[in-house]
Please model this.
Amino acid sequence: MSSAPAAQDTPVLQAEWPLAVSVTLGSAVRAKGIGQELRARLPVLARLGLKAEAGRLVLSLAQSEEKLFEAASAIVERNLVQMAVLPVLPREVEDILAIAPRERLKWTKDGRLQSAGTRTVKLRGRAKAVTFHVFDPRFIEDVLDRDMPALWREEDKETASQNRKRAAGKAALKRKAGQVPTEAASEPLRPDQPAEARPRLKGWDAFSDDGLLR
Model:
């Protein structure tokens, strides 16, 4: 932490802490989330003074709030070390891995994107609480380092191609099954054609003997 009064025309106390890439995983969204998490742990009067900026956290309070400033600074320093293991939220995962929400949902459902559990929160403006999966930061870091989303996209393309071929094959078999020709369908009957020369259907004689044609 570095701490120093700001310029004379802005009489505030200010402290800042670097946010390592190992903590933010290179995501501005996660940096903002870490700032919000730390802000929630500060005294109410100090919360608005903490902001997440490019690669750092900055705490700014009026000089008249020196005791509050010292207390808030101590809380940030004490809790900052825990941020490296803070679960990664869905929006953070999407930003870190550069994936779409539908990809996150699909890969979480089929187990490729391993969930570290769920969290339930009540959002402003919503009557019901929302439950969502969270992820281990070290797992997400490994997925990022190995560029697994690119591999998973290729797997999904191959699976989709196989499914299309399978569906096309089933459709072809269904069409073929519905087009079974009869023996008499190969040559139309002519009125002048002798009876003995006309094609006979299987079972015709038995059908005639029963008298059903009279």
Observations:
- The beta strands are 2-5, 12-18, 50-53, 56-62, 118-121, 130-133.
- The first strand starts at residue 2 and ends at 5.
- The longest helix spans residues 148-177.
- The CA atoms of residues 29 and 92 lie 6 Å apart.
